[in-house]
Amino acid sequence: MKIIADENMPLVEPLFADFGELTRLPGRQLSPASVAEADVLLVRSVTQVDERLLSQAAHLKFVGSATIGTDHVDQALLARRGIRFASAPGCNKISVGEYVISALLVLAERHQLHLSGMTLGVIGAGNTGTAVAERALALGMQVCLCDPPLADAGDPREFVPYEVALCSDVVSFHVPLTREGPYATWHLLDEAALSVLDGEQILINACRGDVWDNQALLARQLGADPLRLVMDVWEQEPDLLTALIPHTELATPHIAGYSLEGKMRGTYQIYQAFCDWIGQPAQQPFAPLLPKPALDRLALQQLPDQDLLKRLVHLVYDVRRDDALFRHGFTTPADFDRLRKHYPERREWSSLHLLAAEGREHLAALGFSLATPA
Ligand SMILES: NC(=O)C1=CN([C@@H]2O[C@H](COP(=O)(O)OP(=O)(O)OC[C@H]3O[C@@H](n4cnc5c(N)ncnc54)[C@H](O)[C@@H]3O)[C@@H](O)[C@H]2O)C=CC1
Ligand SMILES: O=C(O)C(=O)[C@H](O)COP(=O)(O)O
């Protein structure tokens, strides 16, 4: 079996080498010729899996994308050609949740805001949106959810219309990119939506760049009442509207989901789907594949208040690191891909085991691991 895999996927060798001949290639440069002989294709979000790419791939039987988003894959084409497709739903939802909370803690300090009591509108209440909502609730924020598809499908949670969610102090977007249908998300934040916002509001995009009209946003930022923006994703990555960057509070190169755990879970979920497809049990367990974190144990001597929580969160992951790397290291589209390829290790909060006498439920609700006294 010939397996072609994106060079930026972790764990491919230990999980897939036994199944055939493995070739690793840069995902953005995959061409019809390079995948022509493939039986199995393993990609990330930068590879457009479409008619053109698969035009010579006569033997292809399985495509796996180690990502949550699937807008880069023509799934109807794969179905027509009888090619099995698997993505990795939820694989990096914790990473996205932690990115958003780190960003909120940074902005709260910068603008002297008290998160507890502030309102958060979550647009898209699936895996990542829920991960954000749960952590924000644990910080005392008032959360409202906007998700018309789930509301229409009878999800028992309470939902508000988009216009209502847009009035929140913080509005965080977690929708898939869709261009058609009643719930299309392309340019969900357009000139009209921007016109109802005021400059005190914080807007976060950690889903897909095209969900926000970047030109309309730049026009808004150049006016008298700019918004407080946190942008992880951009229209036309990696060739983005660079003029926007100086008008953001935090800017990063599409790494919200890049915790080590999140990336590894993505490959692992594809491995599970692949094993299921070939009718074999997934032999390898996930936990032993994760390396030990540099910092894994800490004892707390006081109740974890907002300030201590902020310090704990930023001990594990501080979004300002990624913002600084991006602001200083990004000039050309190639830099965008380089920063992503050489992304420094980042662990999830659960990698830190806290020994705490008080506030254990609160720490657990945020996603830290609790250590048991020796
Ligand atoms: N920046 C990054 O690194 C990452 C970005 N993503 C992006 O985030 C997106 C969301 O991820 P998940 O939450 O895991 O997906 P999900 O599929 O679990 O949830 C998406 C939710 O959005 C809702 N939705 C769809 N159209 C909507 C609309 N017009 N208005 C409001 N809600 C709408 C859906 O009903 C669904 O509940 C992914 O599709 C992916 O594109 C995901 C992971 C990492
Ligand atoms: O999972 C998703 O969806 C994402 O957006 C990924 O985190 C993006 O990572 P790459 O696939 O572009 O490496």
From TrEMBL:
Q: Where does substrate bind?
A: 45, 67, 258
Pathway, per record = Cofactor biosynthesis; pyridoxine 5'-phosphate biosynthesis; pyridoxine 5'-phosphate from D-erythrose 4-phosphate: step 2/5
Q: What is its EC number?
A: 1.1.1.290
Sequence ranges assigned to domain D-isomer specific 2-hydroxyacid dehydrogenase NAD-binding in this UniProt record: 111-256
D-isomer specific 2-hydroxyacid dehydrogenase catalytic domain ranges (all copies) = 34-279
Q: Does the keyword Phosphoprotein apply?
A: no
Q: Which residues form the Erythronate-4-phosphate dehydrogenase dimerisation domain?
A: 289-367
Recorded protein name is Erythronate-4-phosphate dehydrogenase
SUPFAM superfamilies hit by this protein: Formate/glycerate dehydrogenase catalytic domain-like, NAD(P)-binding Rossmann-fold domains
Catalytic activity annotated for this protein?
Answer: 4-phospho-D-erythronate + NAD(+) = (R)-3-hydroxy-2-oxo-4-phosphooxybutanoate + NADH + H(+)
Please report which protein family the annotation says this sequence is part of. Belongs to the D-isomer specific 2-hydroxyacid dehydrogenase family. PdxB subfamily.
Its gene name is pdxB
Q: Which organism is it from?
A: Pseudaeromonas paramecii
Q: Which residues form the active site?
A: 208, 237, 254 (proton donor)
Q: Which EC class heads this enzyme's classification? A: oxidoreductase
Q: What does this protein do?
A: Catalyzes the oxidation of erythronate-4-phosphate to 3-hydroxy-2-oxo-4-phosphonooxybutanoate.
Q: What are the binding positions for NAD(+) in this chain?
A: 147, 232, 257
Task: Give the UniProt keywords, A-Z.
Answer: Cytoplasm, NAD, Oxidoreductase, Pyridoxine biosynthesis
Which locations, inside or outside the cell, does it occupy?
Answer: Cytoplasm
